[in-house]
Each structure stands twice: as C-alpha cells, then as structure tokens.
Design brief:
The chain is α/β, with parallel strands linked by helices. The protein has seven helices and six strands. The chain is 39% helix and 13% strand. Strands 3-2-1-4-5-6 form a six-stranded parallel sheet, sandwiched between helices. β2, α3 and β3 form a beta-alpha-beta unit. It is globular, with a radius of gyration of 16 Å.
C-alpha cells in the first residue's frame, strides 16, 4: 500500500493526513496498519456492519473511528486517501462531492486484468472521472510481491522484471496498463 500511495501524496501536506477505509475484514486491517505506519492522524472506517468497523477501529485505537454512513463523509474537512478493501463485485462508490472536494488518492484492493473485460471497479471509474489519482489492485499486488521477494531472499526485488512479467501476463496489448507497473 505504502509503495503505491506515498509517491502520490508528495504534493499534500504530511501533517494531519486523513484516510478512509471501505470494509473491515483482513485487507482492511492491513490498510489500517499501513495508514498508521504512514502517520495518518485520522482514519475513518466505513463498513456495512458498523460493529465490525468499530472492532477494527478499537483495535488500532487513537485516531481511528467509524462512519455510520457515506453521508457522514460529506462533513470531512480533509481526505487524502481512500482504501477500498471490498470485493470488486460489491460496486462500492462514494458521494461524488467527497471525491470532487478532496481529490483523494483512491486505492482499490480488488484486482482484475484486461482479460477479465472490466479492469476498473466502479469506485476507480468514479474516482478517475472526478480527477482523483487511482491505484489499481494489481499495483498493490505488485508492491506486496516485491516486499515478499525481499523478505524471502534478503535482497532488493527485481522490480522491473516483476513489473514486466505482470504486464506481459495480465495486460498484453493493453494501451493503458496500470501506471504503477509501467517500467
């Protein structure tokens, strides 16, 4: 998450960063950890089951809170990153005004390839149409693979070779492959 998000935040102030997590499962927990490690001061968790969101917020403590509905997001004064951890088929979107006002970086953990027919989730399509920077799930998967490679081998990962393999396998001939994989 960090490897794809931090380079897209360079134009934003580091102090007071605010993140939004959609979902409250295992990937949401990883997102919460990443937001905390990146120094976000406030992280909002939105999930269809408020109790699960509250449990995740409580696990991470100070700075983590629950939004009961998307309507609550309209009152945010700042939003830097949205991390969707829902299945791509969920069709999740946010109020247009939230995306238009804050222009957050929008990351969707759901990954699809050009071969699947529809590569972008509804949220990524909406965010891109509103001028937000987006990170596809495949880009997140790439960063995860690179980190695992380094952990397992004790050496820096061959990022260009891994990216090229992903592009050749999942996006052959795609005129617009995921930006975070272009080498």
């Amino acid at each position: 998450i960090r490897g794809q998000v931090l380079p897209k935040l360079v134009e934003r102030p580091k102090d007071g960063r605010v993140g939004l997590i959609l979902g409250a499962g295992g990937t949401a927990k990883a997102a919460a950890f990443a937001f905390r490690e990146m120094g976000f001061v406030e992280v909002i968790i939105l999930n269809r089951t408020v109790e699960k969101a509250a449990s995740l917020a409580a696990e991470f403590g100070t700075g983590f809170r629950v939004a009961g509905s998307t309507a609550e997001l309209e009152a945010l004064l700042r939003l830097d990153v949205v991390m969707a951890t829902l299945p791509g088929s969920a069709g999740a979107t946010l109020p247009d005004s939230v995306l238009e006002t804050h222009k957050p970086v929008v990351v969707d953990a759901a990954y699809q390839s050009s071969a699947s027919g529809v590569r972008h989730t509804a949220l990524l399509q909406q965010a891109a149409a509103r001028g937000c920077l987006v990170v596809e799930g495949m880009e997140m998967l790439f960063e995860q693979g690179c980190a695992q490679c380094e952990i397992w081998t004790g050496r820096p990962p061959p990022r260009s070779e891994i990216a090229r393999a992903l592009l050749d396998d999942r996006f052959p001939g795609d005129p617009s492959p995921p930006a975070g994989l272009v080498v």
